[in-house]
Amino acid sequence: MPVWTLVRIFIILLVLLFATVGGAYLPLGPLHFPVAMTIAVAKAVLIVLFFMHLLYSHRLMMVVSVAGFLWLAIMVALTLSDYQSRDWLKIPGK
Amino acid sequence: MSAVAVEFQEREDYLQEYTLKSWLLTTDHKRIGLLYMATITLFFFIGGATATVMRLELMTPQGDVLYSPDAYNRLFTMHGVVMIFFFLVPSIPAVLGNFLIPIMIGARDLAFPILNLLSWYILMIGGAIALWILIFGGIDTGWTFYTPFSTMFSNTMVVPAAAAVFITGFSSILTGLNFIVTIHTMRAPGMTWFRLPLFVWAIYATSLIQVLATPVVAIAIALVAVERVLRVGVFDPALGGDPILFQHLFWFYSHPVVYIMVLPGMGVVAEIVPCFSRRPIFGYRFIAFSSIAIAVLGFLVWGHHMFVSGQSMYAGMIFSMLSYLIAIPSAIKVFNWTATLYKGSVRLDTPMLYALGFIGLFTLGGLTGLMLASLAIDVHVHDTYFVVAHFHYIMVGGAVMAYLGGIHFWWPKMSGRMYNELLGKLSALIVFIGFNLTFFPQFVLGYLGMPRRYYEYPPEFQVLNVMSTAGASILAVGYVLPLVYLLLSLRNPPDAGPNPWRATGLEWQTTSPPPVHNFDEPPVVMEDPYAYSPEAAEALDDNGTGDGGSTLRR
Amino acid sequence: MTMEPVTADRRSAGKPIAAEDEPILEVQFDDLEQQHEASMLGMWLFLATEVLFFGGLITSYAVYRSTSPREVALASHHMKVGLGCLNTVILLGSSLTMALAVRASQLRAHRDLLWWLGGTMVLGTLFLGVKAIEYTAEYQENLVPGWNFQIPEENRATIEQEQLNPGRFQMFFVLYFFMTGLHAIHLIIGIALVGVMAYLSWRRWFSGGGATQIEVTGLYWHFIDIVWVFLYPLLYLIDVHS
Predict the structure, then answer these.
(1) How many structural domains comprise chain C?
(2) Cβ contacts (< 8 Å) between C170 and chain B: which residues?
(3) A17 and A51 part of one domain
(4) How far is CA A21 from CA A17, B536, C21, C84, in A?
(5) For A2-60, how does the pLDDT look when each residue is reduced to its tens digit (9 = 90+)?
(6) Hey, are the CB atoms on A71 and B212 less than 8 Å from each other?
(7) What is residue A93's predicted lDDT score, i.e. its pLDDT?
(8) Range of the domain at A37
(9) pLDDT at B396 over 70
(10) Is residue B15 situated within a structural domain?
């Protein structure tokens, strides 16, 4: 991979970083978290695809990396499903 | 030294070198499998010893055997920790998986042999810590380490126990990683995914679980240790923590771990049943996909351990429904194994007895699991002996029987010797009877309301408890016998032959014991697995004994 | 070109040897491509386990932030956003140098490889230095749970008025120290690993230029960077605008 490509990805990453920080100072209200996470995911995807060469690797590696994050999403989602639904029935402790 | 060429090649099999260094510094997957076998056998009998003392205590309603109720707490905790982390989780994958996976796929070794040896040493380190804890009083938190008791109130060696579990987890992760890489990248020419033995599929699914689930229990137990040492309130309500969070993190691993323990057993059964029915396995692809389905679905059901913990009812309902779903691939497997028997030429050799025992007992355990998955029933039987019986049916009636069946099936391959068949059948029978006498009364006890982890109970439960203890004593005999006759078989010369069971599979195409690099020439696979035929079995039955013409004489 | 087979003995002779053109094939593999594929798959799987390892802490964070958003937001005001941003730049830079090192190893550009590996180590150590400054400041502000934690003066009134849970306020710092601490431990391991790779490359220990070994090290390093890319907004940028 040419040096210039790698440097360009780095510059894009820096731009995204400043977007994250800048966005944190804007009055976005409830949008802060989704925006910050979207930009973080974008940065992670760039690092994975280019710095870690996933774009040029066997598809199995992509399955493995997706699986890791997917399993994390399962753990977070189902755990939060407990906490978020705690007060739905107006029964104490349920 | 004669200059005349020797007629046959004097091949060195993997057992020939016998120095200590050649065993302790080996990178041969077959030797590492045997190292694991020695280790887990030791821990099995340690776990069995704790169970023996517990059952002695439970013969009478009062607490009279042990010196304090606290001692009972330590016993059941150490029983759980030792049996789960140091016996069941490594058992089939680390012993039979290590030995067989490279041979079954036609490779010379695993992808990372040094990492394989490191996995064993990591288990030994974790095991050494566990033994140290056992000698110096044990822990009393239950193998589940629930907070806030484990973090704030227990006065036992919780932090060393957490360290032991943390360290041992890496053994599991690295073994699983090794298997996944090996199965993906090192299959012999012609060995496509759908020509793999189902044992390989089962170990592959198990390895997926090991790799994805174990890190979470590592962090959960690390948080417990941190909270205990630094007195920060991760799970302490007074300091803003949430004890249920521990349970979520813990069970995210500890539910999939039960599939780590049972899936390999299912793989062993899928190898034994076709061989001893002389029929190809029924529904190969269904069994293969079911293994993967169980591994994946197993991650979605952990909340069924937490129905009465304070988890929200809606989450409880979601987990309950998902738990019902996971019964489907399990049932598919049971149907397929049973269908394989149909119109087969069934031979009741020792491995087959264990495999049939697995099918029946796993079914019972699985059905009671469905009962527990129902919220309404679980509210009543949670934390009673019903749950204890349920998981022992799967873990002991299922996983341990499959492990023994596998050891007997592949014993001639691993050692080159055959064991005494009469003693083998006798032990299998004793195990089956002892097991059912031990654990079936526990279903009744739990339904009648006897709580688990109690050393005293109301007198009306005594009869069932005495039955259970009697069963346990029979079961113990059934477990000691194989240790004796299998070791005794090593005194015989290695003349079992490459394929005493006339089984299919690459492991039976090489000598018993195999050479160091498994095959004389790299194999090329050209036919589907399980190419058995009952008609051919009948035709070969030339010694008139109805046994399909087996080469076995003992 | 030497005719004798390359064995391990030559590597342990202690003196630099001429780099072989081809990597040594381990006995269990059939060909070099299989060996390379196995190494890559092995490291990717290990990184998947690391995702779940950090994931346990991410789950804890998600639970506490979603159930006590106000306390967590208030606590996060004590984070040093500027230093964290600087650290992110440093670590992204180290990922660049690491990627350039991997490229150099594949091109057999020996001197470039050593410089880029060295640069990666320097930037990684710089990150740890900035982190140490932050930790020291937090220690001096009495924000370390289990050590000297006290609710800061400026927050006491708010906690009192809005009837917030002081335990949840502290919980943010428990998670902050554990998550960044675990990340730092992985970074220290990473720097050591890069150091070992740099030394072995300098001694020309690796056959075939060590491209696979450097690539595998690179994967680990980039993963550490990705963890920080998520930790920074999650810990520092929760409630900056108010």
Answers:
(1) 1
(2) 232-233, 239-240
(3) yes
(4) 6, 74, 47, 10
(5) 899 999 999 999 999 999 999 999 888 888 899 999 999 999 999 999 999 999 899 99
(6) yes
(7) 65
(8) 1-57
(9) yes
(10) no
Q: Which ranges constitute the DSSP H helices of B231-242?
A: none
Q: How far is A58 from chain B (nearest CA, A)?
A: 12
Domain that holds residue C103: 30-236
* pLDDT higher than threshold 70 for residue B547: no
pTM for the complete prediction? 0.93
Report the CATH number at residue C132.
Answer: 1.20.120.80
Give residue B540's pLDDT band: very low, low, confident or very high (50, 70, 90): low
Q: What whole-number distance in Å separates Cα of residue C201 and Cα of residue C19?
A: 10
Asked whether residue A49 falls in the same domain as residue A71, the answer is no
Encoded tokens for B360: 């029946």
Give which of C19, C36, C39 is closest to C206, Cα–Cα.
C19
d(C-alpha B466, C-alpha B143), whole Å: 25
Residue B339 in any domain: the answer is yes
Q: Do A78 and B312 touch (CB under 8 A)?
A: no
Q: Closest Cα of chain B to A13: distance in Å?
A: 29
Burial C24-36, CB ≥16 within 10 A → b, else e: bebebbeeeebbb
Which residues form the domain of B332? 27-539
Contacts of A81 (CB under 8 A, 6+ apart): B312, B314, B315, B318
Checking ipTM against 0.90, whether it exceeds it is yes
In three-state secondary structure terms, B451 is strand
- Is A23 found in the same domain as A1? yes
Single out the residue of C222, C233, C234 nearest to residue C124, CA to CA. Answer: C222
Q: Is residue B354 part of a domain?
A: yes
Residues A52 and A21 in one domain: yes
Q: From B276, B263, B351, select the one nearest B530 (Cα to Cα).
A: B276
Q: Note whether residue C41 is domain-resident.
A: yes
Radius of gyration over every alpha carbon of chain B, rounded to an integer in angstroms: 24
Taking the CA of residue C15 and the nearest CA in chain A, the distance in Å comes to 33
Residue B526: CATH number of its domain: 1.20.210.10
Q: Does B35 fall in a domain?
A: yes
Please give the tally of structural domains in chain B.
1
User: Is the Cβ–Cβ distance between B53 and B79 less than 8 Å?
Assistant: no
In chain A, how many domains are there?
A: 2
Q: Cis before residue B513, ω within 30 degrees of 0? A: yes
Q: How many C-beta atoms surround the C-beta of residue C192 within 10 A? A: 12
